[in-house]
Amino acid sequence: MKKYLLLLLCVVFASSILNVSAAESLIPPENNEIVSQLGYGDVVQVKHDNTIAEIMEKEKEFSHTGFERGRDTRIETQPSYTAPYSAGTINSEDKEDSLRALKMVRYLAGLPYENVVLDDYETNTAQHKAVLMAVSGYGHHPAKPDDMDDEFYSTANDYSAECIYAGVSNISYSILGFVADPGVNNIARAGHRMILFNPACTQFGIGYAYNPDAQWSDLIAVHTNYGYSETDSYTAWPNAGDFPIQYFTTSTYQNYEAPYPWSLTLGAPYKTPDKEKITLTLTRKRDNHVWVLDKNTPNLGVEYGLSDEYTHLAVNGKNIIFRPDVVSLGSIQDGDVFTVNLSGIEYTDGTPAQLNYEIRFFDLEKEKNNSTVTIKAVCEDEALEGAEVELNGEKVVTDMQGEAKFRVKNNSTYKYVISKNGYNTESGSIKVEESDVTENVNMVKTMDIQINNPSLSQVFNINISNNSENKKDVTFYTALYDSQNILTDVIVNNESIPAKSNADTLISVPQDKYNNSDKIYMFVWEGMVPLFEKQILK
Q: Which letter does DSSP use for residue 139 in this model?
C-alpha cells in the first residue's frame, strides 16, 4: 500500500455542478484543516495572459463533453455491487474525454498540463471508491460492508487526495464541478480546485459507479498522487488574460451568473498571507464598480453561510478565496474586464508586495464562429521574433516562434502589414473562410552585409546590399578593444547607398592599432538603428 499523508479533503454535495444548493457537510472533523504537506517539488512556472486565439486552439485540442451534464458515462465492465465485489471499468473513450477536460482547466489556470495522465493505479483505486460509495453511502469514509473483503475496502481508501461527486453521470462534467467548487461546504477553501490545480500533480485517477438500488446512484471519485510544489508567481481562477466565461459561470447563453468563488494562490516568492493585513480590491471596468475585501469581510463558508448578498474572503494557507456579492455582480458579460489588486502581502524576505492582474472575459460560443489567423514571420528560414504585425486594426508582436495570432470573423478577407527595424515592411491579404489560416511571410533584411576575408589583412572589403526602396545612409564603426575588453579606439566610415543597389567599402586598420588590439568588432548603424555587429578580426 502506498504511504501518503492526507493533505486535504473536501466534498462536493449537489444535484448539479453548475447550480448547486448547500447541504450539510460530510467532511470528517479530522480533515477540516490541512494535516500535512507531503514533500516539495521544484518551483513550477505558471503562465498568465493566455489569448483568445491560443485558448480556442486548446479548446479544439482538448474538446470534451464537460458541459453536458446529462450525458451518461459508459461502463465497459460492469461492477458487482454485492459480494463478491468487483470494481468494473469505465469506457476508455469517456476516460480520455475526462482527461481532456482536466488538461483544459489546468491549461486555463496556466499550470502544467501536457504531462497529466490518468494513471492505471490511481484509476483503479478511484473505481473501487466509486463502487464502495455506491454500496455503503456517499462520503469520504463509508463504512465497510460486512461481506466486503478487506483488500477491496483497503484499495478504495488508498489515496493521497480525493474529490467525490454524487448525482451526476458525466465524469467530464464532474471535472468542471470540482473546479467550480460551489456551495457553503467548499467556498472557505475551494479544496477540490486546489487538488486539481496542485502544480506537482501529474497522475490522476477517475472512477464512476451507477447502482440503481442505492440512494446515491451516480457516484464519481477522483484520486491523485500527492506531492506538493509552488509556482513561480501565483495561480488565479479565473486566470489573468483572456478567459472564457463558460468555464467560470453557471448557465446559459447571455445569463452568465457567477456565484462561484474566485481564488488566488500565492507562489514561492511570497509569505503566507494574513487576513488581518490584506486588502483585495476587485474592479469592473464596464461601470467602475469596486468591491473592497479585507479583514472585515465575512467568510461565507464559516460565519454567515452562503449568501448572495455578501462579499466573501477566506485565507487558507497561501490560498485566498474570495467572491463579490452576487447581487451587485449580476451576470458577467462578453467583453467584461476585471482588475484584481492584492495588497498587504509580503515577499519571503519580509519586504512589502502587491499583486495586480487583469481578467478579460469572452464568450466561448461566439468565438466558435470565428477563426484564428497566424502570421509567421521568417527571415532566411529562421523565425523572426519582435516583428509588429497589424491586422484588422489590431497590432501583435511576433513571439519566439515568429508568430502573431489574431481572432477574426469568418468569410472575410483581411489585410496585414509587418514591420521591424532593419527589415523591409511587408504586406498582403488573407482570405478566411471557416477554418484557421496560417500565412508565412518572408522578411527581407534592409541591408545585407558581407565582410570579405576579414582575418587575412588589416585592410578588408565590406559589401553592402540595400534591399529597400529608399537610399540608405549608414555608418561603419570599427571598434578596437584591449585584452581587458576596454574600448581603445573607433574608426568611422560613412556610406550613402542608393536604393536597390550594392556598394563596396574599404576598411583599413593602422598597423600600430592592429598590433595593440585584442579584439576588433564591426558595428553598422542606420542613423540610431543598429543593423549589424560582428567580431571581424582576431
A: S
**Inter-axis angle of helices 171-180 and 92-108, nearest 10:** 20
- Is the distance from CB of 346 to CB of 380 less than 8 angstroms? no
Backbone angles phi, psi at 359, to 5 degrees: -115, 125
| C-alpha closest to that of 228 among 303, 160, 287 | 160
Radius of gyration, alpha carbons of the chain? 30
Question: What kind and span of H or E run contains 218?
Answer: strand 218-224
Residues in the chain: 538
What grid cell was written down for 501? 543597389
Closest CA to 60 of 466, 341, 364: 364
Give the span between the Cα atoms of 282 and 499, in whole angstroms. 55
Cβ atoms of 22 and 183 within 8 Å: the answer is yes
Task: Give the percent of the chain with pLDDT over 90.
Answer: 66
Reference 315, options 350, 349, 280; nearest CA is 280
Are the C-beta atoms of 228 and 151 separated by less than 8 Å? no
pLDDT band at 21 (very low <50, low <70, confident <90, very high): very low
Burial class (CB in 10 A: 0-12, 13-18, 19+), 22: middle
DSSP 8-state symbol, 483: T
Residue 261 contacts residue 249 (beta carbons within 8 Å): no
| Nearest Cα residue to 337 out of 284, 378, 293 | 284
Taking the C-alpha atoms of residue 532 and residue 451, their distance in angstroms, rounded to an integer, is 11
Which domains are seen in the chain, by residue range? Answer: 29-232 (3.40.33.10), 237-365 (2.60.40.1220), 369-442 (2.60.40.10), 447-537 (2.60.40.10)
Q: Is 344 helix (H, G, I), strand (E, B) or coil?
A: strand
Identify the bridge partners of residue 316 per DSSP, sorted by sequence position: 319
Q: Maximum Cα–Cα distance for the chain, whole Å?
A: 99
Which residue is associated with the grid cell 495522465? 117
CA distance 46 to 357: 14
198-249: pLDDT as tens digits: 998 889 999 999 998 887 778 999 988 767 789 999 999 999 999 999 999 8
In angstroms, the Cα distances linking 421 to 365, 440, 505 are 39, 19, 23
Q: Please, which residues have CB within 8 angstroms of residue 293's CB and are 6 or more apart in sequence?
A: 279, 280, 281, 282, 311, 312, 313, 322
- CA-CA distance, 252 to 256, in Å (whole number)? 7
CA atoms of 458 and 492, how far apart (whole Å):
15
The residues, ordered by sequence, that sit 6+ positions from 319 with a Cβ below 8 Å of its Cβ are 189, 190, 194, 263, 264, 265
- Residue 36: pLDDT over 80: no
CA atoms within 13 A on the CB side of 456: 5
Q: Which of 198, 225, 226, 230 has its CA nearest to residue 38?
A: 226
* Beta carbons within 10 angstroms of residue 243's beta carbon: 25
Instruction: Report residue 153 as a C-alpha cell.
Output: 475496502
Separation CA 42–CA 48 (nearest Å): 19
